[in-house]
Amino acid sequence: MKLVTARLRRETRGLIYPAEPRSLRRHLSRLRGRGNLNLLGEAVLGWDEATRRARAVEALLRRDDVACVSVKVSSVSSGLSLVDFDGSVERVCGPLRQLFHAAASCQPPSSSTLTWRSTATSTSPWRRSSGRWAGRRARGHTAGIALQAYLPGSHEALERVLSFAAERHRAGAPPVRVRLVKGANLAMEQEMPNCAAGPRRPT
Assign residue 3 a region: left if phi > 0, alpha if psi is -120 to 50, beta otherwise? Predict the structure, then answer.
């Protein structure tokens, strides 16, 4: 196992960085503000864990050497259910508004990208939360969203996002960044629906 661990760390050292602030700063200095940072691990078992992860994401957004952070809906909120769609959207909006506020208040503003498997549960709270940071309140903050192309509702979700982005931009906010993901998780979800990854050491 030591050999396996050593090889995994060697092969992923250019993609996965330690989350400790000092070590992370050393690695990020090579990127010079480029790239998209994603805090690994999303095994959220309750609101306490969701709150800790939201604070960790906010800390990344406030770093002066981080330009863009991706955040999964399921990693900063608890009790999400497609059966209770409206309730799930309400529970997600609180943490997202806080993260958008943190990103917009940075100098210069950071970018934030929202990702999740369900396009409906992603786009609704994303539009509701990021819409509050339009016009002067946006202050250069570029909100983004990633849509998984293999989901049947992605095309309709993209149309809603584009319409919302045009309206937001007319209000004086920066353009919206949309990232289309080809669906790399599809095979894994069919075989291992509850698979999750985490950092080498917890933050």
Answer: alpha
Give the tokens for residue 106.
């940075």
> Tell me: the pLDDT tens digits for 113-166?
777 655 666 688 888 877 665 555 555 677 888 888 877 788 888 888 889 888
Task: Give the tokens for residue 104.
Answer: 């917009």
> What span, in angstroms and rounded, lies between the C-alpha atoms of 121 and 151?
12
Query: What gap in Å lies between CA 105 and CA 102, rounded to an integer?
Result: 5
Q: In what order do the strands lie in the sheet with 143-148?
A: 37-38, 68-72, 111-115, 143-148, 177-181
Rounded to two decimals, the pTM is: 0.73
